[in-house]
Specification:
Elements: E1 10-21, E2 24-29, E3 40-44, E4 51-54, E5 57-58, E6 61-66, H1 70-76, E7 83-90, E8 105-111, H2 115-127, E9 131-138, H3 147-152, E10 156-161, E11 168-169, H4 176-181, E12 189-193, H5 196-208, E13 213-216, E14 232-233, E15 237-238, E16 245-248
Parallel strand pairs: 8-9, 8-12, 9-10, 10-11, 12-13
Antiparallel strand pairs: 1-2, 1-7, 2-6, 3-4, 3-7, 5-6, 13-16, 14-15
The structure holds flavin-adenine dinucleotide and FE2/S2 (inorganic) cluster.
FE2/S2 (inorganic) cluster binds at residues 221-224, 226-231, 238, 240.
């Protein structure tokens, strides 16, 4: 079923569930959307507030969800054939730079379930013949998400773990300098999604290195369509409408720097 943008949630049946790690599952829904990587949907279950979830894929709709609280826990109890109510797609997507004659190198940096929308973006970028690398960070090896999915589609993956159980011991920002030092791996653009502290640290490195960076920001959302103001960040920016993906251009110094 193709669902068009609607202010009302539509019930979609779960057609598949993939266990990603101890706290995260990907739900495959019986519907598709015309959507771009970085956009999100509001998902709802009876008796709960609806909450935003990034699209891990749009055809079919896939949502990768960490079990952290009431709605996400209720979603984790569902089975194939149960329904999830979805409205969207909403928000601004990542935007790949215009193609030049040289192969563009896109570096994706993800932490936690932030890896999910970047898998969607990686698929799109590879289809457009961009060179795609990705740094995935987690506290420990068993928390890492979607590593094999990314490798399988042809993304060069670097891993960082805080406890050193695999990859580079440390944070995602520890894996960036070696990539910047080589012209073959120096990115034309960085797209990132994950916890707020990670986004700030990645944006700071990119701004210092004059590399455009696009961050997917998180804020508490209620309406998801620019009406309630609950997702305001910086000086009057609405995460649901102006974001969640905010571009930072170190040359033009986009006004979104107000967030940081
Ligand atoms: C644009 C956008 C995209 C999002 N995409 C996704 C997505 O793809 N997958 C996904 O799982 N969530 C995503 N979220 C978060 C999601 O909307 C909910 O906030 C989350 O599922 C928690 O909702 P809840 O009702 O289960 O728990 P809540 O009551 O909202 O949270 C319960 C507790 O857990 C804490 N908490 C919330 N999130 C996390 C976390 N990630 N890790 C640890 N503690 C946390 C809260 O601070 C609170 O203390 C996104 C949010 C935004 C704004
Ligand atoms: S969630 Fe209501 S304005 Fe953004």
């Amino acid at each position: 079923m193709r669902i068009s943008h609607s202010p009302l949630p539509k019930p979609l049946k779960i057609t598949g569930i993939k266990v990603e790690n101890a706290s995260t599952k990907t739900f495959i829904l019986g519907g598709k959307l015309e959507a771009q990587p970085g956009q999100f949907v509001m998902a709802w279950l009876p008796g709960h507030e609806d909450k935003p979830f990034s699209l891990a894929a749009a055809d079919p709709i896939c949502l990768t969800i960490a079990d952290v609280g009431p709605l996400s826990h209720a979603l984790h109890q569902l089975h194939i054939g149960d329904s999830v109510w979805v409205r969207g797609p909403l928000g601004k997507a990542y935007s790949l730079p215009a193609k030049s004659s040289a192969k563009q190198h896109t570096l994706l940096i993800g932490g936690g379930y932030g890896v999910a929308p970047l898998l969607f973006l990686a698929r799109q970028a590879l289809a457009l013949d961009y060179q795609v690398s990705m740094i995935i960070g987690a506290k420990k090896e068993s928390d890492l998400l979607l590593v094999n999915d990314l490798k399988t589609i042809g993304v060069t993956v670097w891993l960082t773990t805080e406890d050193g159980s695999t990859g580079i011991r440390g944070l995602v920002t520890d894996a960036i300098p070696p990539l910047l030092a080589e012209s073959a791996t120096r990115p034309t653009v960085v797209c990132t999604c994950g916890p707020t502290g990670m986004l700030r640290a990645v944006a700071a490195v990119c701004m210092a290195e004059a590399i455009p960076v696009q961050v997917s920001w998180e804020a508490h959302m209620r309406c998801g369509i620019g009406l309630c103001g609950s997702c305001e960040v910086g000086q009057g920016w609405l995460t649901c409408l102006d974001g969640p993906v905010f571009p930072f251009d170190p040359v033009t110094v986009a006004p979104n720097t107000a967030i940081f």
